[in-house]
User: Fold this.
Amino acid sequence: MAYQWVKDFFAAADSLDVERFCAALPRDIVWRFANFPTAHGIGELRAQYEMVAQILESMRHEIVGIWDAGDCVTAETRVFYVDVHGREFDCPGCDVFLLRDGALAEVRIFVDNHVLFTPPAGTEPAVLGEGVA
Assistant:
């Protein structure tokens, strides 16, 4: 049952289209992405997603498994990134989706993708904004 909406969530995320991705989420979403601060609401989430989309050429989630426990759905993934420098990365991840009254309310993403934010040798680091780790 949970598989299709999880698949649709990752398709929207992988599009790197800010409008498409934000339209797929509730306005009052609570969002925790890796080491970024928790975002409360679509505006804060949008700012984080835009920063990540700026440094990527592509992103693709491969779903390894989904576990549905009612109001908590967990997805194990492998995330394939290509950054704007052409570097390719493959990171394991885990996403926890918390539902309220059957609708998505909170997303917690656990992925160690710090390599995306490490500039190639000889280049200046990207400025991603304050509070971004």
